[in-house]
């Protein structure tokens, strides 16, 4: 049986694309793993906190007991945060069903107005907590955005640094 020349060319191109895709995936996995190496390890208890929020209330980790909590640490000046924060909107149905709490934690900001401008730009409907140096140190925040998923028992279920897609966030909060 003879293969047509076009088929061989197409199959060769597909093999090249698959190799490139595999290499890109391995690089992405390696960078993500390297970035998360300093974060609080999975299956450990998440550090306790009590922070004031933009709405005037105080929030603590114990307020989330019995629920899955996504903590999204951001800085208003962070370009990647501007790109990735919209991906949280895809989790709204989980939040409305009571399956998931989403709390944004502002760090590395110069003023409350800077945080407000960030929030107005993205029109977010999540509680925004004002983080401090102690919380940043306890959660080992070294880059933005950083995500933590805390399970209903208070243990870290997942964590990530950098851009995360809506699909990635759905996977981590499953």
Largest sheet: 5 strands, mixed
So what's the overall shape? elongated
End-to-end separation in angstroms reads 49 Å
Tell me the helix content: 25-40%
Task: Determine the mean pLDDT.
Answer: 88
- Helix and strand string, N-terminal first? HEEEHHEHEHEEH
Residue fraction in strands? 15-25%
- How many distinct folded domains? 2
Rg (CA only): 20 Å
What structural class do helix, strand and pairing data support? Answer: alpha/beta
CATH architecture of the largest domain: 3-Layer(aba) Sandwich
- Give the CATH superfamily of the largest domain: Glutaredoxin
Number of strands: 7
User: How do the strands line up in the largest sheet?
Assistant: 5-4-3-6-7
The CATH class of the largest domain turns out to be: Alpha Beta
Q: What is the count of DSSP helices, taking H or I runs of 4+ residues?
A: 6
CATH topology value of the largest domain: Glutaredoxin
Which consecutive residue ranges, at least 5 long each, have pLDDT under 50?
A: none
Q: What secondary-structure arrangement, pairings included, does this model have?
A:
Layout (H helix, E strand, L loop, with lengths): L4 H31 L14 E3 L5 E3 L7 E7 L4 H6 L7 H5 L3 E7 L5 H11 L5 E3 L2 H6 L7 E5 L5 E6 L4 H7 L2
Parallel strand pairs: 3-4, 4-5
Antiparallel strand pairs: 1-2, 3-6, 6-7
């Amino acid at each position: 049986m003879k293969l047509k020349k076009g088929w061989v060319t197409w199959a060769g191109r597909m093999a090249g694309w698959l190799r490139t895709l595999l290499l890109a995936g391995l690089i992405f996995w390696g960078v993500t793993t390297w970035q998360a190496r300093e974060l609080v390890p999975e299956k450990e208890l998440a550090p306790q906190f009590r922070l004031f929020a933009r709405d005037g209330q105080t929030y603590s980790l114990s307020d989330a007991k019995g629920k899955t909590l996504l903590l999204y640490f951001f800085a208003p000046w962070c370009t990647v945060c501007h790109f990735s924060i919209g991906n949280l909107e895809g989790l709204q149905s989980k939040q409305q069903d009571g399956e998931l709490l989403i709390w944004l934690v502002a760090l590395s900001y110069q003023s409350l107005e800077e945080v407000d401008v960030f929030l107005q730009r993205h029109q977010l409907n999540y509680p925004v907590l004002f983080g401090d140096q102690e919380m940043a140190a306890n959660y080992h925040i070294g880059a933005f955005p950083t995500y933590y998923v805390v399970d209903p028992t208070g243990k870290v279920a997942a964590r990530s640094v950098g851009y995360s897609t809506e699909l990635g966030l759905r996977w981590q909060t499953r």
